[in-house]
Amino acid sequence: MDTLGHILNGFNVALMPINLWYTFLGCFMGTIIGILPGIGPAAGIGLLIPITFGMDPTSALIMMAGIYYGAMYGGSTTSILINTPGEASSVMTALDGYQMAKNGRAGAALAVSAIASFLAGTLGIVALTLLAIPLAAIALKFGPAEYFCLMLFALAAVSSLTGKSAAKGLLSTLLGLMVATVGIDLQSGQPRYTMGVPELQDGVGFLIVVVGMFAIGEVFSNLEDHVKGKAEIIRLHGRLWLTREEWRRSIMPIVRGGLIGFFKGVLPGAGATIATMLSYTVEKRVSKHPEKFGTGMIEGVAGPEAANNAATCGAMVPLLTLGIPGSGATAVLMGAFIMYGIQPGPLLFEKRPDLVWGLIDSMYIGNIMLLILNLPLIGLFVRILYIPTGILLSLILAISAIGVYAINGNTLELQMALMFGVIGYVFRKIDIPLAPMVLALVLGGIMEQSFRQAMTISGADPRVFVGSGISITLLVLAVVMVLLPVVLPRLRKLKEGTENLES
Amino acid sequence: MLTDRIICALTLLLAAVYFYATAQIPALEIGDPLGPKAFPILLGIALIAAAVLLFIETLKKGRGSRAEVPRENLRHLWFIGGVTLWTALYFSVFERAGYLGATTIFLIVLMAVFNRGKWRANTLTAVLFAVGSYVLFAKVLGVMLPKGVPPIESLSSAVDAAWTFAASAAAGVFGR
Prior knowledge:
heterodimer; A: mainly alpha; two-stranded antiparallel ribbon; 2 strands; about 0% strand; globular; B: mainly alpha; 6 helices
């Protein structure tokens, strides 16, 4: 009964005029960030954090969450109209969405992605509301050893599931953890890897890495595309609505995509991108005309769009209840929590129910706002695409400078952000995924701390990590995650081999 | 894949450097039994494991196909390199040259390269952005930014800074 009270009180918080305004602002900026090439939700939130210092944390977090899920709406627009997905999670939308636009159904494609996003997003928040309470209750029982195992599992999953190569994912994760060890060690007071640079004593600022890799690095790779040639924009015309037939064909893919998306979102590493791929594959498999996929099938837009929005809600579950983000963007969101001195996790539900439920409930409202922003007003947002890329990318560089300087007013940090930008650009070129590194950087400090706490409690006996059912399960899962990409192709080969033998 | 082999080698090199730097941390055995070195040592070991894993992956891929990768046009690298240097220069005079002037010039040059020929629109955008963002962030939102227009002596030190930067960059590119 108490919980229900908290949930309802959350609406009181979310419906306060000031918070409504920030929800709107977040959704609005999220849509723009989703549309803009060269800047994604992670960079957008990262740039906003220093600017929102001093704001009420609840309002600021409501706004940043709005950017996160709002960007999923905006991301589909570029996929459909210029065949260049703004985020990895809208790659699948481009397959049939762009073809629909070429066939003159751009309006229908945009409409179905907005509707699918809304329905699946709302479904996802309901699931988030229901799942958050029991999960937070379980997480309260976690000690340092269990937390360490949980983080190990999350990082293992992210390493092996993001990107093409598990080894490169692991490399990225380890780099993040190593960067996290720079600075004064809190337990012993010893400076580590600072090379005598005073700015490094507090460690490498997480925002510097985020803005460097996700904003500056992204600008570099967009400049490369720009120099090499550019895409053509399909003008939006025709009615922004679905025919009855299109509507009938979309509804089941939305439901299926929403369910797939939510559960994939909850699992670390899997996230929105894999959810959209899975949803697309499922739709193709259940369709009576699988051969038509890729030529402008509305099912191929509705399913993945539902999946990526539900996945963003799913991804909020581990972030809020366990304090463990599972993707790049949620890692930045966690960084935002920490900047405000708030540790997300099970205790937060007891200490600050107003903040947690205000945030969750604001997502219901934000989704309604986004539906309005993305249906009748999409024509306005599309105009952003007409801004010449050369101007846009230059401005993003200047905005990144503002964002980084605003943190500490330090020009050395600007140069460091630029360095991480170059690293991010190179990593993209050689297929090293960036998300694991950022995630590891956020978790690194807490991870080392819980590792050492657990060892202190046990008197340096490593058996503490296999001391409870929860930690054993998590360790086994972590090992499975690492071995999965190695074993899976072999198993498949083995199966094919036996099938061949039988036939 | 040649690049993957290089990544492998660099990873091992990094692990070596990291181990060396870890050994330099003075360890005082107080408080916790592990000290500041234990976790980094584990990371270093894991890094070597990652390099080995990557090496195994390249072996597998190498056996699959040995097709020649077509030589890519590398012109874009000059652009990226140029933008990086230009941005580094902007960052190094950012404080002393004043936000408004530095940002306007930074943007006009970038746009002149990447949005060629539209100098009027470019200049207008650059000036409007510099002034608009300064008013919005520094004045309205109270965000920390360098002074809009700096005092004269600071300006001359900005020129010095730019000069030092250009000289060191030139030394880096052309000579040793």
